[in-house]
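target protein:
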Amino acid sequence: MPAILASKEGLKVACALFNLLDAKDRKAVVKSLPVGEMAVNRIANLFLIHVANNLDDTQLTKKKMMHDLLLKIDDCIEDFHFQNVLNSALLPLQTEKKEDGTVVYKPNSYLTQDDLSMMSLFLEKTTAKKDRTVRGKELFKIVQNPLSMFFEEKLKYQLLDQKPNRVMKNLFVALAEHGVAGSSDLVDEMLRQVQKPYEEHGTQQMLFGHPFIHRMLKDMVKGDVLANFNGEGKVEEGDEKPSKLKLSKNIAKILLKHFDEAIKGRGVFILLELIETKET
């Protein structure tokens, strides 16, 4: 299979063939893939994304694909294509049905429309039976702890990196969207770090006003609302009802604690997100 992934047309054929294969043949294909090499290839990484988002065998996805991928994380985390394979586990692909009956991948934040189009051939003929929402939750759970541990070790430096990591941002957003940010040690540490000052253009500002961080916090608020008002809110021990919007409340407390700094900088945009969102 990797031999035909030298071109976009080859990618199109490979994705279409995988859609048509039965479970036994799919298993054979996945076991033969050199995942580590493919993840950093500009075309082959797209086939890995397609496979991970259409494979019903969760154990095979975990023990073969994601296991092989995560073994390379220290060496490859800055690679754009490698990041996209991880992003596809955090923010899985969604599909839509066209008027002519064909099924295509919806646009997303990390793949081009051309790439998604090439990966969509024969999606309507797929032999996969698992619901995409269920598969998406499974993919997130596979990478949640390994990625949380990886970024927690280097969080202080990752947050201040001049080129912040897209996987880190998507991990935080996914934690919010899946309703588990409130119980995440990584999120707790991040909320402590964003209350520290950093220097920008010769002036001291709070880290929650950093160009990258304030956008990430806004997206986490949106994810928190999505989780709590779409059946994803988690019931905490001793509570009769789900703990609604715990993350958003914690972010609001931080902004109120540092109110002067927030309204003078980009933190004001997070405040506006909280004020303008009906649920918060």
About this structure: The chain is about 60% helix and 5% strand. The chain has two domains: 2-129, 154-276. The radius of gyration is 20 Å.
